[in-house]
Amino acid sequence: MKKPGLARYFLASVLLLLLLVSLYGLSESRRLQKELLRQTESKGLALAEAMEASAKNAILGNALLEKLVSERLLDNARLIDRLLLTGPLDSASLNEISDMNRLNKIEVLDRQGHPWEFPALPAVPRDMREMMAEMRRMARPPAEGRQQMMIFMWGRSWVLPGDQEDTAPVEPPPVTEQKFWEGSVFGVAIGARSIPGIIAVHANADYILNFKKEIGVQRQIEELGRQPDIHHVALLDGHFTYVAHTDPSLMGKQAMDDFAVDAGADWQVHSRIVDTGDGRVYELIKAISLNNSPLGYLKIGLSLAPMEAAWRGSLWSILVLGLAILAVGIMGMAAIFYNQNSHIREIESLEAEVARRENLSALGNLAATVAHEVRNPLNAISMGLQRLKAEFRPTEDEEQYSRFIELMRGEVHRLNSIVEQFLSLARPLELKLQPVRMDELLQELALFTGGDARSSKVEIRVEAPSDLPSVRADRDYLKQLLLNLILNGIQAMPKGGSLTLEAGTSRRELVLTVADTGRGIPTETLERIFEPYYTTKSKGSGLGLSIARRIAEAHAGTLAVESEVGRGSRFTVRLPVGGPAKSPES
Asked: Residue 139: pLDDT above 70?
């Protein structure tokens, strides 16, 4: 089975997960930004509605105040005109009337705007009660058919819908040389019937301004502007002039830009985001109306700094969450791919084992056929060589003849040994299980191979405690397995070395180790040493390690090898102490 590119699949999965997490973070950040902006818009609209109600009340209050004050001033002007009809008044009398009515001043002017010159009055003290009674008497409405006086007002700010015709001032009285209303905050003037001129009454400016300040929107707007998330709040009249603003220096200035003009054109709520010098601001403008008639406009600017700070904080949370999801996803996929890779390796190992067993089975069948066909001729050749040696004597070179016969008999025995090995691969192993003491078996094998070891300058050491439990195994097959490993170890040390035979137990298993200090096995060779007929020796069938492994597996055990070039090899056999549950190949 060809191993799939799991590393490429894992990398592609990680990239896909990273893309999904990035898309999630981007969409979530945009959704959050829109939601915060929507909340800011809702807050702005709610604030605009609340301010609209306050502004309407303030405008109504200011307009009512101005109307009442103007009516009162007109009453005072008419009263002075009537008093003048009865007789001249001096400046002292006018000042006294002004103080009584809490006015700023009263002026009687000629047509050129100069103070009217009254004739001198006799110094006759008048009782104030009589004077007030006379004023009340003379303040009665004029008789039917008398001509109305010309009225002129100045200083008014707010005109309510429906009051335009009643309160709209006409052109100023005919004063040719002086604008008498300049420098005064609020007042009225009427064309006098008592003299050829006008009577101007100036209101107390401080009183009116303080009253407006107490009931007006300027104070509310200034208090509202102290909140950290409000950048500015402004109230504009119908000509887009600031009449109230969180920045008092802008009062009286116009805001004639496209944003304000568009709002004035359709009476709809308009909003925009502007970049000021100290940050971005969400600004909206809303028309204020009363009885479907425009009163002015309300402009509110909300700082986006708190929203952006909250968005950045949430963005960090989204980023941390995304990284956590990414980390958990990568670890999860790594675990999945690791398990998958382990399963694939197990499958490959099982497939390799199945293929090996199939090869062994095919080779075994072939070996059985070959052995059957070869064994009989070998027996005949061996018998013929025995008869030649026993019955025939050469007349010359008898010694060479005998050596030649022995050489052929040795080759026959070698061929017969190969046939036996073939047969051992082909037929099932019939195990004769019995208790085997491994310390005794290792000592016996060390003694048996001692001659070969000494000739190769190899020292054999046995490390097997005497209290090792006995293992149920076939002694002859186990001896063959270990003998094969010992001889291979001696042959791997042609210049001498040390061979260690070790036995121990681990988790109800007997662990046998044959370790040498020879030249070691290269990595590319290590994977093939258990394959049948694979050998690196000049003389060898390549069946020894295959048969040894098969003996270990027949005992329900394993045979493994560890090797490092230049430092030697270590073969490890693991067998269950209780022996196989049943004969594996029975």
From this structure: no
